[in-house]
Amino acid sequence: MGRTKKKKLTNPTPVQLPSGSWRCQVMVNGKRISVVDADPEVAHTKALALKNGLIEAEKRPDRITLRDAIQVYMDAGQGVLSPSTLRGYGIMHRNRFQGLMDREIHTLTRLDVQAAISTDAATCSPKTIANAYGLLSAVLKDYGITFTGIKLPQKQKKKLAYLSSDEVVKLIDCAIGDPCELPIVMAVWLGMRRSEIAGLCWDCVDLENKTVDVRRALVPDKDNQWILKDYPKNEGSQRVISCPSYIIEKLKDRYHGQSGRVFRQHPDTIRRHVHMVCKKAGITDTTVHGLRHANAAVMIALGVVDKYAMARNGWTSDYTFKQIYGYVFPEGAAETDTLINSYFEEKLKL
To answer: pLDDT tens digit string along 116-174?
Structure first.
């Protein structure tokens, strides 16, 4: 039997909200009414029924505070949004824009929001403010409220300390014998995230074909409890990575027919040991995530085609790979300077 094609929904067209739910809007008696449901087909059916007078619109509370509206938004995202995303929303809910939280949302003005942003910007990073405003604007949009002309703090590009190519080798050498040796090596060699390493289970390790299947992650939930979820950061992060014999042999040494997680250490233990190994090796101090950056730099230095690099490390956009993760090893930059300077000096006969 052939596959059943999913029905294409006509107007009103369902639109997916940031919460993961679907919204259809229809005009009833000159008033725009929104229907929201977890299933786009259900939202579409209800919207058509409203439009044709078959059902009456559910009455929303006339008054709702921003605090309650955000809670409703988070509740709607349960089971759709990742535990770590909901945890982040919870932190913002409790700490950001507190002067607005007990205000009825329809009384908020652009100036109110701008003032709240300016207040929090005095103690928070631009990224934190941007994330908090992203949540705020998504919640308000569900109630038909949008503001234009909001100014956010300008993001400043941090001067981060990264490993050089020689330091990458020293790190791997110095990690030998460390309790977290393999997680450290897999971070810098395979470009895996800490959550992916901590969430790696033996059923995703193929010792014969020398691959690891990245399809789980260990992350903190809204209560700061570490949970194993059945998917990594995003859809593009699900991937199969070919492992070198160096890593496979060490995995074989660990395997004794058991199941469950490969690495039982607490994720923070892996983080601490990265710092310890860097100090022991006398190299630039970095983090587990910094090792993922170093892996990107190696691929750039080797001229790996962008789409292959993105697939290997689970990046969903060229911007993420090149602008956020990619950096150039200092020695490579120096060689480029020398090459360009020599070119002009030769042309000018200097």
So the answer is: 999 999 999 999 999 999 999 999 998 889 999 999 998 776 666 788 888 999 999 99
Residue 143 burial class via C-beta count within 10 angstroms: exposed 0-12, middle 13-18, buried 19 and up: middle
**Based on C-alpha coordinates, what's the Rg of the chain?**
25
Burial 290-325 (b: 16+ CB within 10 A, else e): bbbbbbbbbbbeeeeeeeebbebbbbeeeebbbeeb
- pTM of the predicted structure, to 2 decimals: 0.63
Amino acid at 40: P
SS3 state at 82: coil
The CA distances from residue 293 to 156, 235, 318, 321, in Å, are 19, 20, 14, 9
15 pairs with which residues across the strands? 23
Structure tokens at 298: 């190696």
Report the alpha-carbon distance of residue 171 to residue 138 in Å, rounded: 43
Residue 183 CA to residue 215 CA, distance in Å, equals 16
Instruction: Say if strands 15-16 and 22-28 run parallel, antiparallel, or are unpaired.
Output: antiparallel
Q: Which two tokens stand for residue 115?
A: 């003032």
- For the chain, domains (ranges, CATH) are 15-51 (no CATH), 66-142 (1.10.150), 165-332 (1.10.443.10)
All residues at 6 or more sequence positions from 316 whose CB lies less than 8 Å from its CB, including other chains? 234, 235, 236, 237, 310
Q: Per mean pLDDT, which range of 37-51, 102-116, 161-175 is the poorest?
A: 37-51
Q: What is the DSSP string of 265-313?
A: S-HHHHHHHHHHHHHHHT-----HHHHHHHHHHHHHHTT--HHHHHHHH
Contact 292, 193 (CB under 8 A): yes
Q: Collapsing DSSP states into helix, strand and coil, what is residue 41?
A: helix
